[in-house]
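We modelled each protein-ligand pair independently. The example shown here corresponds to the N-trimethyllysine entry; the chain sequence is given first, followed by the ligand as SMILES.
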Amino acid sequence: MFVRLSATLRPALRRAQPSWRPRTQSRGCAAKSAAVHLHQDCLELSYGGTPMRFNYVWLRDHCRSAESFNSSTHQRNVDTGSIELSIRPDRTAVEDGHLVLTWPGGHVSKYSLSWLAENSYEVSKQRTVHQRILWNSDIYESANVPSATYDKFMSCDDEMKKFLQNYLLYGIAFVDEVPATVEATQEVTQRVSLIRETTYGGMWCFTSDFSRGDSAYSQLALDRHTDTSYFQEPCGIQVFHCLKHEGTGGRTLLVDGFYAAEQVRQKSPENFELLATVPIRHDYIEKSESHQNHMTGIGPVLSVYPWNNEVYLMRYNNYDRGVINTVPHDAVRRWYVAHRELTTELRRPENELWVKLTPGKVIFIDNWRVLHGRESFTGLRQLCGCYLTRDDIISTARCLGLPALS
Ligand SMILES: C[N+](C)(C)CCCC[C@H](N)C(=O)O
Ligand SMILES: O=C(O)CCC(=O)C(=O)O
Ligand SMILES: [Fe+2]
């Protein structure tokens, strides 16, 4: 990154010589060449082999000088509303691995070339936001992902970091040897995130007593699904701890929804597209003496980042899916075909991971990615757990230096 360009360009010269290439000087090993080209509406930078375009307003808006940006609070001081939309720099230079722009009025902005590359659209669109390992049961099992253990998890940041790394990669992670109490379960969850309070409470404990108007509170089998798809923003993480089970059955089913979505994308992009665009409603309607709820969440089955086509959220809950009345009839037909294809992928036995939750084993599930279900059961089965806020668990991971969302 030892690029030096001493020349500065003035507008007149720029018109006469629209494209210019800096002399690159390599000092030592890691030299990357840089070339800047000024267009009417953007600055084009070629650096490390990638051509990138930066809008001039964007460049002024992203100035990192002390006057424009408070680097201790990481907040912008520039009033974006006051930037001339036709702004262009008066002088442009590349000096010591930095792009230096002098704006009309004299303000100088300096950006390191690596910062520009790191923050460019062109680089972002080529990389995924989340590093993930998509899995079927063979892939997950042969990875032999270790569980964290309670004592270490609670006292050692490195253990927590490894746990979070696995959680981010696979969308599930386990802590073993946790005391079989609500309090200890809460302690474990609060080590990495904040509990998200919902109509079910903060920490909840449930059994098959029909205390709430939902099939979770029964002994019935539950097919794979994501929870709280009826929220405007479904809960990010679900935590379960089986405190007691005196009976048979009740195994937990886990399926990587993103693995299935990628199969659909590869086999029929048009079906993937429908799942990513057709808005679908989910409802939670509970009318009992003690609980009155009517929640509705609307969104596609697959939410996809528009700049890199990466899936980041799946809403799939056939129990809670509401009436479809926002889709024209021909699209309804095509949507059911697409939904069937996704369902077929989600139901492939080779994609199913079955685990028996036992006292001591706490599971964290990425509820935006990994579907859960359960086998029917007999006897007393008591589960406790909670939902966690997604922003906070990801923030913890980032603060520990993990590449969670770049
Ligand atoms: C987990 N806990 C038992 C508290 C709530 C269960 C909610 C079940 C609901 N059908 C959904 O899928 O969101
Ligand atoms: O009973 C279980 O194992 C899980 C039930 C369920 O899907 C839920 O509580 O969200
Ligand atoms: Fe559930």
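The pocket of N-trimethyllysine (ligand 1) is lined by residues 200, 204, 206, 214, 216, 225, 227-228, 317, 319-320 (CB under 6 Å).
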